[in-house]
Amino acid sequence: RPRVLSGIQPTADSFHFGNYLGAVRQWVALQDDHEAFYCVVDLHAITVEYDPKALRERTRRSAAQLLAAGIDPERSTLFVQSQVPEHAQLAWVMSCITGMGEASRMTQFKDKTAKGGADRATVGLFTYPILQAADILVYQADRVPVGEDQRQHVELTRDLAQRFNHRFGKTFRVPEAYIVKETAKIFDLQDPSSKMSKSSSSAAGIIDLLDEPKASAKKIRSAVTDSGRDVVFDEENKPGVANLLTIYSALTGRKISELEDEYAGRGYGDFKKDLADVVVEFVTPFREKTLTYLDDKAQLDAILAAGAERARAVTEPTLAKVYDRLGFVPGP
Ligand code: ATP
Ligand code: MG
């Protein structure tokens, strides 16, 4: 079976609809016919300012949400990145074959430092994509289900894998991004020109999966729509409505054209009200399941520890092979 690897950062109390529709939903689907590795990437989360206590809580909340979304820890290997040391070890190696120029071209770093300025950012935030490359390569993953914003990082990963293979002999599988076009980029409800993001969306712009369902409904109803009153999918002129149509279609499995027909001549009000209902129907059981998983922290930690052990069965041999190729003297 082909291998799949992906990760999510514990940088917020809740995942949002972008995370779910852009990535996590695919993770759940892919575990059926893939050997799947899914992780909560806490090493990535410390690249920006954070609170240690909140990180621990958010890491567990992230794992609980993945379970609630349908990740099955029997079929998939679910773990926390910091519990598998080979990620960080391989990241160092990868950083030694990455050019400063190519690292500097990564747009996520530019986006995330647009406000505070690059001088105030950490080196870790700069090398983030190199750690991500190591995450993927250490599992010899074939596919990486992510949102559109991560495409460039998967491209870098491919370049690094090919470079290493060329220089030191075939070692890594060269992975492919797995991006579902329709939901690859979910936009901020208040600013439909930027992506919905845990760290940069305003509270009103983001629909969190763990929000009070009533609060989510309200956010949908007050989402920015565009002038006019026709519910049509026009990303250029009506990005707000297009975004809501994307979410509506993804949650119900109904075609966008079908939704356009249904709301023809009815205006935005009805459309938003119905979408709010659809969202409430989705988040209500999701939230309950997540809270149930969080009730038993010992069990949650045990699931993650077992996952880390299974992960290491793959990462240790990969790293040993890499160290050998690099010319390191074998250790004890
Ligand atoms: P942060 O703002 O802290 O970077 P984030 O919201 O971007 O958080 P991540 O943990 O970085 O979330 O990303 C997890 C996964 O969710 C990635 O595969 C990413 O591509 C995907 N993703 C994030 N935001 C969106 C979005 N708005 N639309 C589609 N996919 C998204
Ligand atoms: Mg992100």
TrEMBL record:
Localization of this protein: Cytoplasm
Pfam families: tRNA-synt_1b
Binding-site residues for L-tryptophan, renumbered to this chain: D135
Xref: Gene3D superfamilies: HUPs, Tyrosyl-Transfer RNA Synthetase
InterPro entries assigned: aa-tRNA-synth_Ic, Rossmann-like_a/b/a_fold, Trp-tRNA-ligase, Trp-tRNA-ligase_bac-type, Trp-tRNA_synthetase
Sections of the chain in a coiled coil: none
The EC number(s) this enzyme carries: 6.1.1.2
Annotated ATP binding sites: Q9, P10, T11, G18, N19, G147, E148, D149, I186, K195, M196, S197, K198, S199
Motif residue range(s): 'KMSKS' region: 195-199
Catalysed conversion reaction: tRNA(Trp) + L-tryptophan + ATP = L-tryptophyl-tRNA(Trp) + AMP + diphosphate + H(+)
Entry keyword set: Aminoacyl-tRNA synthetase, ATP-binding, Cytoplasm, Ligase, Nucleotide-binding, Protein biosynthesis
General function of this protein: Catalyzes the attachment of tryptophan to tRNA(Trp).
Protein family (similarity comment): Belongs to the class-I aminoacyl-tRNA synthetase family.
Identification of the protein by name: Tryptophan--tRNA ligase
